[in-house]
User: Which sequence fits this backbone?
């Protein structure tokens, strides 16, 4: 699974919440819904879900916000793995990132 948008580069005080939260509304939302669907279908035991994300190491605030959303995707994958284990579904959730 992969999805993403780049946040607006405008200073914080010049953005609306809608502009500011674009990464949460796209990047985090897709990880949440995809992981939830994989746990509730459920997929056959032995299935793998791989989240591909990038971790920006930029000093610019808007890229830190992007990286925060991507890190939250990784949190969701880790949480989904724990749920798969707890429910004994045999589904493997993994994340792969590129710098």
Assistant:
């Amino acid at each position: 699974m992969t999805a993403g948008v780049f946040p607006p580069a405008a200073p914080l005080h010049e953005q609306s919440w809608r502009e500011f939260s674009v990464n949460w509304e796209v990047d985090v939302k897709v990880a949440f819904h995809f992981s939830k669907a994989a746990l509730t279908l459920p997929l056959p035991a032995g299935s793998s879900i791989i989240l591909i994300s990038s971790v920006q190491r930029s000093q610019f605030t808007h890229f830190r916000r992007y990286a925060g959303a991507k890190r939250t995707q990784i949190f969701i994958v880790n949480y989904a793995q724990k749920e798969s284990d707890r429910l004994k579904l045999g589904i493997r959730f993994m994340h792969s990132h590129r710098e």
Observations:
- The chain has a mean pLDDT of 82.
- The longest strand covers residues 48-54.
